């Protein structure tokens, strides 16, 4: 079933595929049935496949636009699976606009929609849905771990795992059907119990272990959510500014200065860390401050890690409504306090910088503990986690349904395979595609 994502499927499409202008070089990609004819009209005779050749790019009226490299990629051995041409010109706005304007004059040749090149690659079997999502994440990656995780997905590492699991489910269902239909035949290989259910128990364990890495995958992709919490004037905003190495939050001696949730993105050991500063937690009747505290508690409940601050000598809060994760306790303003009988995880002074390196070390250790012994073949989106959970639940149901007949158990395995197929796009996922490809830039 088609959607409204692409106006005309058979159009030849073009777009700037190399990012913002001005730039040293701009790459204009053309893809579709008429790509070679369109490119030849502006560059002259096309070079051999995959041979970068310097050409003069002209309008059809003979006016020179620029000189640049032309590369030809015959389908299906191209990114989209269609005939593709890349034209590399100088990255000035006037040059690029002139070339795009000229391409727009050809019949059935139009500017590509968001992600349309990648969508055509999916529809032509060059990529699956997980690889497409990985490509989108690779383009957006800002940290080393985000790059590595996205590359694992874009290169097909995760898809290979899911396809192997789906094939095992298909084989198991085939053996069950064989036992149901040919139970009296001598060439049916053994008992289903021996050939299927032991493997399904292993698959249950593998799915469960894989899902355990979903939290890390989402942390790598979206960032470790670290929330600074504590009473007013405990030094929360000062700590945030010190960690960010710039003034993100307003710092005053007036209690209740921070009313809303502020955040800044950090890069720690290649991991993205999203650091949140929240309103001071205390009893108050002031309406605006109470709303700030409500938002602070909501942010804490959704955190991966909480830094609970208290001025040295005061006890830090250890329990927060709705949060059951790890809490690090920080004693603040160590530059004006000699010591305390209270045991904190780390003593810090935002003004002098004392303790900040130790805090960085604790954050690095937390990330290391979360990623220990895990590969980067990890689910990184809620969509992945939801469908993996459905598949695992179906496998568990099949294993537990020993008294319900092979046909019922086979149906559970069919559901498990269907959920896995929806992750990679092997099963119809048309309703998801518009959302996914809308995340891409025009030239991809």
Automatic annotation (TrEMBL):
List ligand-binding residues for (6S)-5-formyl-5,6,7,8-tetrahydrofolate. 29, 86, 126, 444
Textual note on the cofactor: Binds 1 potassium ion per subunit.
Biological process (GO), any one? tRNA wobble uridine modification
| Entry keyword Magnesium | yes
List the InterPro entries: G_TrmE, GTP-bd, GTP-bd_TrmE_N, GTPase_MnmE, MnmE_dom2, MnmE_helical, P-loop_NTPase, Small_GTP-bd
Q: Where in the cell is it found?
A: Cytoplasm
One protein family per Pfam:
MMR_HSR1
- Swiss-Prot/TrEMBL keywords: Cytoplasm, GTP-binding, Hydrolase, Magnesium, Metal-binding, Nucleotide-binding, Potassium, tRNA processing
Under the heading SUPFAM superfamilies, the entry gives: P-loop containing nucleoside triphosphate hydrolases (SSF52540), TrmE connector domain (SSF116878)
| Necessary cofactors | K(+)
Q: Where does Mg(2+) bind?
A: 237, 258
GO CC aspect terms: cytoplasm
The protein's GO terms of the molecular function aspect are: GTP binding; GTPase activity; metal ion binding
Subunit structure, briefly? Answer: Homodimer. Heterotetramer of two MnmE and two MnmG subunits.
Which family is this sequence assigned to?
A: Belongs to the TRAFAC class TrmE-Era-EngA-EngB-Septin-like GTPase superfamily. TrmE GTPase family.
Name of the protein in question? tRNA modification GTPase MnmE
Q: Which organism is it from?
A: Rhizobium lusitanum
Q: What is the lineage of its organism?
A: Bacteria, Pseudomonadati, Pseudomonadota, Alphaproteobacteria, Hyphomicrobiales
> Which gene holds the coding sequence for this protein?
mnmE
